Amino acid sequence: ARRWSHPFEMPNALRHLVVVLGDQLNLDAAAFDGFDPSLDAVWMAEVAHEATHVWSTKPRIAVFLAAMRHARDRLRARGTTVHYRELTDHDAPTLESALSEDLAKLRPEAVVRVTPGEWRLAQSLPQACRDAGVRWIERDDLHFLASREAFARWAKGRKEYRMEYFYREMRREHAVLMEGDQPVGGQWNFDHENREAFDARGPGFLPAPIRFEPDATTREVLAMVERRFATHPGKLATFDWPVTPEQADQALEDFIANRLPLFGRYQDAMWTGEPWLYHSRISAALNLKLIDPRRVVAAAVAAWETGAAPLAAVEGFVRQVLGWREFIRGMYWLHMPAFLEDNALDAHEPLPSLYWTGATDMRCLAEAVGQTLDHGYAHHIHRLMVTGLFAQLVGVEPKRVHEWYLAVYVDAVEWVELPNVLG
């Protein structure tokens, strides 16, 4: 081995420090392009501020931390050095302060990451690097099918932004449910077939979604969340969310086989005591990037091609992933940071306390809020037509409503939650 004649000749021991955030757990992300385990390392951190800047529910905190720790273990199992801060091992209050402390110790040549899902972190983390005198390398988030630049080009010059037109372009570009340049079935949208309600007898037999019994890592997280965030709302007794890519795959397969065929018909339906009905339960796994949206779309399309699910159900589901999810992300980055302060109806009432307790004699609202606090979940009609519409009727300030949605749902990341709430 070469002997270094002078300390200043020694090469930096760490070339790239790859920052992996809690909603960026796809370990084939662009941040890992050119990754060399002998030269590079990964940095991840659990910090209290990410659970308290909005008063996050216990299920939401637990989903993020359990998924992060499993990602850490996957990385280490493949020989990657991971500098990981567990919440109970340090007292740095924010991601920025934790990163600053570790940059001073590790002194990498550069920090590498993909674009965060929050404007706040997109600004503050590069500043931490600039303050430390460390080069910052940002790469596109290739998890999504439409880049921010592509969406901006689509939006340029339009007087209004209509998801349906964007969705059609995405269908054409990615050749999804297409016959040449025309949509299969002769129409783009089958929504008129997807709005049925249950009769007075209710939904009848419902195939229960697959459950994921917490393993030792997840149980450790659940116990820590109960201790550290004891005053936060929500319950963990029924926690069974997918927190690994393997579990996310199983959740998708379970949905495709058992609930997709009737998803379209009853996607807008509600029933007392039935939080899941025919919905997929994969939105959290998608938004933490434990599963790729291309795989999700392909699995749904394959179900139609094999006759396992009707076209109306498949199209309605694909529209949520290929259309609305991509569209809403584009809207977020197109309009931030001013988006956060939008208040078109000049509403300024505080959020009613029932949103944190479920204590109300309005049965539908009590059910929607109650299952939200129990599971960290409600489907789009509970969110839009019950909790969202009530807040609008009361005249609640939009920013307060946004903070509640970001705090309570396991699938809430600001890029997807904020534009939906403001819209």
Q: Could you explain the architecture of this structure?
A:
It is a single chain. This protein is of the alpha/beta class and 423 residues long. It has helices at residues 49-52, 58-77, 95-106, 119-132, 148-155, 163-174, 216-228, 245-258, 260-266, 283-287, 293-305, 311-335, 354-357, 363-375, 380-394, 398-408, 414-422, and strands at 16-19, 41-45, 82-85, 110-114, 135-139, 178-179, 182-183. It has a 5-stranded parallel sheet, with helices on both faces.
Portion in helices: 40-55%
Q: End-to-end distance, in Å?
A: 62 Å
Let me know the average pLDDT.
Answer: 94
Query: Ranges with pLDDT <50 over ≥5 residues?
Result: 1-11
Proportion in β-strands: 5-15%
The shape, in one word, is globular
Walk across the major sheet and give the strand order: 3-2-1-4-5
User: Mind telling me the C-alpha Rg?
Assistant: 22 Å
Number of alpha- plus pi-helical segments: 17
Largest sheet: 5 strands, parallel
- Structural class designation: alpha/beta
The number of strands is 7
Q: Give the SSE string.
A: EEHHEHEHEHHEEHHHHHHHHHHH
